[in-house]
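Researcher: Let's try something more involved. This one mixes different molecule types, so please make sure each is placed in the same coordinate frame as the others.
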Amino acid sequence: MSSGNNNAGTGSFLSGILRNQIFIPIAALLILAVFNFIVDPSFFKITLGHNSNGDPVLSGQLISIIDYGSELAILAIGMTLVTAASRGQDISVGAVIAISGSVVLRVLCGTNSRPDELQAPIIVAFLISCLVAMAFGAFNGALVSIFKIQPMVATLILFTAGRSIAAWINNNELPVVNDETFTYFGSYIPGIPIPTPFFIAIACFIITWLALKFTNLGLYVQSVGINEKTSRLNGLNPALIKFVTYIILGLCVAVAGFIKVSRLSTINYSVVAKDIEMDAILAVALGGNSLSGGKFNISASILGAYVIQFLTTTLYKFQVQSDALPAYKAVVVIALVILSAPVVREKITAAFRKLRSSANAESQS
Amino acid sequence: MPQKLTTAGSSRRSLLGGISDTNLLMSITMIVFVLMYGFAVFGLGEGFLKAQTFFNMLNANAALIILACGMTLVMITGGIDISLGGMAALISMSSAVYLDMHSGSVVGAIMISLGIGLAFGLIQGFLVAYLDIQPFIVTLAGMFFARGMTTIVNTDPFNVQNEAFVKLKETRIIIPGLGSVNRRGQYIDAYIEIGVVIALVIVAALFIFLKWTKTGRSFYAVGGNKQSALMLGINVKRTTFLAYLMCGILGGIGGFVYFMHVGSGSASHASGAEMNAIASSIIGGTMLTGGVGNIIGTLFGVLSLALIQNIVSSVGLDQAWWTGITNASMLCIFLVVQSIIIARRKKANLSAAKPADAKGVKT
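Model: All components are placed in one shared frame. Result:
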């Protein structure tokens, strides 16, 4: 999928853009934006108001998209790496968010479910939840890389058991944290009118970008995803690289879970991050990454994640119930995978070639 | 890996002499099942000795047996279908709405169930077989679609009041001679529900289909190695499509049997059923890699899961989360066992092959 084009024709610039991976999410974003603009231009209105504490906050649909899309964007980073290396997706992310969120609350609350003050510093709770989520990532990674089980079946185990484990961690209670600093991570820091999750997502993106730029991680991940055998012959350790991508995803999950818990200061383990695995996979697919591994583009996935949130917000605006959302998204996923299926692509290119050759024949005659 | 074409191929020499992989896994499951039942009878009291305890396990899991049969079919061809649980929920809700809010007939509800199953089978089969899309992505989308549609059909859970349906739901088939005497000294007949009969008939039919028909054998061939199946003259795409189609129809039947057992519509019905179906198939000796599998094993897989849940709740761990955790750990253990068996078989093949053609043995 190179963005360059050898054909020196009039359409080479246009087809160059069309071939670029990031074109897909941008096109989807434009379609959604135009659609919303026609239906209701007030969708794009952003107002500066004050929240209950008197701090300035921006509000509007666009702000809520960059706010609530941030967890998804963070997940999309890890999911892209896992997809690229192991040629499959992790469907346990929602369940592990429930686990890591429960761990945060458990550490903050101690034995009491509604303490008046925190039992541990927030950073400690966050670090412990990171460790736990990375351990679960390692569990998935071990099943995939060492025991060579298909990623989606391996992660199906935690997909079903995860929320049960989360319930067990908090003894089936719903602890509530009563601390103002804790809410900053999921809402606004006083004095800054842009939601904090957006900054966290940007920070995660910059860290990943630096890691991919200054280490060989990206190259290794792609090489393992494209051909495991050849990578091994070239001296890489495919099992280790797959394992590492699952641990990175675990870390992303912990960050996303921390934001989720911070938003409400509590957790409902059976509802939190429900169906988010579908959104994360959709973000990767919408970013133009092949779901069967190989080359990847993190920025396209992140943009894809915000496009998904744009879609969700649009659907909400049309009074679609939150439980019914997956049905619409499933249709989008199927449409995307059909369009990107090699069989369909071949047919489309063949049809284009036919058109072009017949046009050429006409112009010659 | 042509040795996977037959369930008992060249892999015979690699493991325990004369037992093929699927029979080995199935025997392990059967032995574990019998041992667990023995443990339950001696450790947890007389309750497990009653025939009705066993029949109740069948009654509660008839739908799961049918769904797991469908899952086994697609897994033998090397695919997977995780939309089955969502399909059962959608069928329950649609049938319930049709029966109660549109005062429909039971026959109509059966038609709706089969129609939904057929539609899922046709579309998913087409996408997987002819467009070559990963089965997991297709059926994951199918699962979310079914779950979302269930809420669109109706949001609130409710019990069906339709007379004809309630009568059908309460129909019990009495098994003579196996009843028990309760504390008051009354004799209570042992019974099974209609769903159990349907499930057992399907198990028998599929056993014959997979063992002795040409199409059934070609399922194994396709799952074992698509390339060699193609060279044998099997229409690989049509066979794969057929597997998903059959799985969809079995999902339709299983969904209706599920509905007949619970008698209500709810968006949260059959949650985790796809996991249980996959777990049952794997426990029963079906390989995730395709080409190896057995319907009788699947039946025992379902019964083992049911027995474990019974034991867990009789031991006193009756909080809801224990079911999820025990099921998942069962699946995990059997997956790991499978992967070890596959690894050992590869090693055996490598050492058996001559150094000259060692290059050809890679997978």
